[in-house]
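Hello again, I could really use a second opinion on something today. I've been puzzling over a protein and I'd love to understand its fold better. I'm sending you its amino acid sequence along with the backbone structure tokens. It would help a lot if you went through both lines with me. I've dropped the whole record in just underneath, so have a look.
***
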Amino acid sequence: MLGWAIMFFIVAIIAAVFGFGGIAAASAGIAKILFVIFLILFVASLVMHVIRGRRRV
């Protein structure tokens, strides 16, 4: 049990170093851009599926 506690403590310290630095802001900006890109791709894929799905072969 002590081993798990030490491991989580080390993970928390690493997360704090990244969180309190400028890396968190940069990552959030990149995540917003990727979200918009994947949202556009999802909508385009949905539209193409609806258009192609109506045809019977």
Remarks:
- The first helix runs from residue 2 to 20.
- The chain has a mean pLDDT of 83.
- The chain has two helices and no strands.
